[in-house]
Amino acid sequence: MKSDLNRMLDERYTNIGLCDWTTMSIDIKNVIGKLCKLLNLIYQTNLKPEYFRLSKFNKTDENVVSVLWNLLFKMLNKNNILEVKGTLADLKYTRKQFYFNTTEHCGSRELLLAISFILCLCLNSQLEKHLEVSVFSENYFFDITSIENISLDFDKLNEEELQNFKKWIEGKISSNENMIYEYSHQITQMYNKLNNNLCVKANGSLTIFELLALNNQSCTEHFINNSEPVLHQLNAYTEWLKHEKIFWKWMESVLYEERKV
């Protein structure tokens, strides 16, 4: 019976098609470099292709074991080895060799195989989580009361009333934390007024914050600064998707090295 990793690799080949072995031999280092760039952006690590080569042959040079454990901690959002193993067990990862390693000084190849398993299952969802809290999300929260002058032509909002309303909310928050709920509710109402004034719905092609970024300098700077990280991640992910078939075929050679032992 095939292992879960073998089965997932087979499914990966079916979904993305087989690659040219000649192309793979030329491009594998470049492709792993693209993967390292993507993982470094998402998980704030310092991976390099050499770690993958070393782990293929189960080496421990360049502190590779510690580096890969650190990546596993971040990928699964766990703090220690036992938690990582527990989470992988919940994900139905069944390689016994991985669970038999009781210390950080286990073989680097087993860590690479576990990382590849997580890549198959969780990479897309991790990127989606980053997008959900980014400036591109319609749920992104920006404190509109911090904007002194919004360069929009308000037909339905009186500036004096708006300023008084802001001061009233800020005073309530400083005196009573229970007013935070009311504050959020009132801010939502202000967003709705902005939408009505602009004749744009909140679920339209542009979010409210994107509209503000188009019309206010401070919002524009905030949007640019906070959009760059997720844009870099998406660009790296796009490059990875173009070439990932070469990596998954290379992973077959990693399993072959294990069977040679």
From TrEMBL:
InterPro entries (UniProt xref): TEDC1, TEDC1_dom
The protein's superkingdom reads Eukaryota
Q: Which residues form the Tubulin epsilon and delta complex protein domain?
A: 93-255
Q: Which PANTHER family match?
A: TUBULIN EPSILON AND DELTA COMPLEX PROTEIN 1
Give the protein name, as stated in the record: Uncharacterized protein LOC115888421 isoform X1
This chain's source organism reads: Sitophilus oryzae
